[in-house]
Amino acid sequence: MAQIKQDMPPEGGYRPIHFKRIPCKTFFSGAAIIGGYVGMTAGAAYIYYLNYGAVFRRELEVKGGSLAIYPMLLAERDRAFLKQLRRNRDEERELMKNVPGWKVGTWYGEPVFVGPEADKFHNPSISEYYVHSSYKDMKKIVNMQFAV
Amino acid sequence: MTITEATELPTDEELTVQEVNLSGPVLKAGAFHLGKSCEYENNEFILCRREFKDPRKCLQEGKAVTSCTLNFFRQIKKTCADEFTQYAYCLDKSSPDQQYTPCRKTQAVFDKCVKDNLGLDRPPFDYFNRVHVHKSPRPALPVEGPAVYPDATPGLPPTAETPPAKYGSRFLFFW
Predict the structure, then answer these.
(1) Does B60 fall in a domain?
(2) Where are the alpha helices (DSSP H) in chain B?
(3) Where are the transmembrane segments (chain A) (predicted)?
(4) Do B42 and A71 touch (CB under 8 A)?
(5) How big is the A-B interface in CB pairs under 8 Å?
(6) Residue B78 lies in a domain
(7) What is the DSSP code string of A82-129?
(8) Contact check, Cβ <8 Å, A82/B56
(9) Least buried of A4, A56, B51, B165, by fewest C-beta within 10 Å?
(10) For chain A, what percent of residues have pLDDT higher than 70?
(11) Residue A148: which pLDDT band, with cuts at 50, 70 and 90?
């Protein structure tokens, strides 16, 4: 018959249970974190302010340079534009010469714009301006600033 | 289909003049001095364009702009060709979008040459962004007033009685 041995705690009892909370090591206090955040934001805002002015002046100068040459470019563009309008009109006259009742610049004699001034200049739309050229040529210029 | 037979278009002879055959960096390099020396012609042309909104009516002004620009670049070529070429080359090669900032040294050399030879100062960097008053010899266009319609509803005569509203205001929130 086997001896019954009661399971008992070790001599002197168990070790104490660790229940005390061990917090993380703190490097900064709360006030230091908030103060640091405010200070860094203020410093960054000041640097941003300086940089903003510099970028603004730089872009202003570039824009000024473009404005200075704008009249020259516009004058050149106007002459090329008017030449092309004449070419377009000649092309349309040549193309539609066999169509009875067709009048150039109108829909069988019905004008697009009606008004008191007969000679008023109406800017043609971009698709009208490029109507006698290929779509590829129109696509090249359709988003450009100086186009029609 | 807006250009009809009745629309007057200038002939090719009227439109053909010597154009400014220069590339973008070169134009940008000369832009500030050009704008300053051709200021009158430029303002006259842009004023005409904005007033008439018609490219056909501003051809003479446009030709004046082009010839002034050509004259300016001829003068530059005669006097400061090397400095100008250096500056334009720097603008072309220093940044992808032809910024003025990386080329201050060559710009200073070019400015000094222009100042010595042509007596032209470089205008302040925001000179062309400011509002300028331009005195044009051309008379001003008549101002178009508000439209007058003959069949408009006539208003009350000035002696008409205006009694208070019979049922108060119809606006419910402020009775």
Answers:
(1) yes
(2) 12-15, 24-37, 39-52, 59-79, 81-94, 104-117
(3) 27-49
(4) yes
(5) 140
(6) yes
(7) HHHHHHHHHHHHHHTTTSTT--TTEETTEES---S-TT---PPPHHHH
(8) yes
(9) A4
(10) 96
(11) very low
Is there a contact between A82 and B10 if contact means CB atoms under 8 Å apart?
yes
Indicate if the pLDDT at residue A141 is higher than 90.
Answer: no
- The secondary structure of residue B175, as a DSSP letter, is -
> Biggest alpha carbon distance in chain A?
131
Cβ distance B27 to A69 less than 8 Å, yes or no, reads yes
Is residue B166 situated within a structural domain? no
How many domains is chain B partitioned into structurally? 1
B98 dihedral zone (left: phi>0; alpha: psi -120 to 50; beta): left
Q: Do B5 and A103 touch (CB under 8 A)?
A: yes
Which of A67, A76, A81 has the CB atom closest to B20's CB atom? Answer: A76
Min distance B142 CA to chain A CA atoms (Å)? 16
Q: Which domain holds residue B45?
A: 23-125
Looking at the complex, report in whole angstroms how far the Cα of residue B153 sits from the nearest Cα belonging to chain A. Answer: 25
The CB-side HSE value for B141 (13 A sphere, CA atoms) comes to 10
